[in-house]
């Protein structure tokens, strides 16, 4: 899958896709335009199908803090 195909599949722009994948826009910009990483392709296909991909946190706020 190309980076443009991924953007079309999710109907979003580069920064929106990065946000949905919980990564930086700079990381997405570094992807090969002709072939995105296989794990990211899986995650994008899952997101496009309305599912939460395995290994992708739903929110960056799901951090558990221990009380001392």
Keywords, separated by commas or semicolons:
68 residues, mainly alpha, 4 helices, 46% helix, globular
* Strand runs, count: 0
Average residue-wise pLDDT: 87
Helical stretch tally:
4
Low-confidence stretches: 59-65
Write the layout of secondary structure elements.
Layout: H1 3-10, H2 14-20, H3 25-29, H4 38-48
Structural features, described:
The protein is mainly α. The protein has a domain of 46 residues. Helix content is 46%, strand content 0%. The chain contains 4 helices and no strands. The N and C termini lie far apart (47 Å). The relative contact order is 0.17. About 10% of the residues have low confidence.
What's this entry about, in short?
This protein is mainly alpha-helical and 68 residues long. It is 46% helix and 0% strand. It is built from four helices and no strands.
């Amino acid at each position: 899958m190309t980076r443009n195909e991924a953007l079309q599949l999710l109907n979003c722009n580069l920064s929106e896709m990065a946000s949905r994948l919980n990564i930086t826009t700079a990381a997405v910009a570094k992807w090969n335009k002709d072939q995105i990483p296989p794990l990211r392709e899986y995650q994008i296909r899952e997101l496009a199908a309305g599912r939460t991909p395995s290994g992708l946190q739903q929110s960056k706020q799901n951090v558990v803090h221990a009380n001392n």
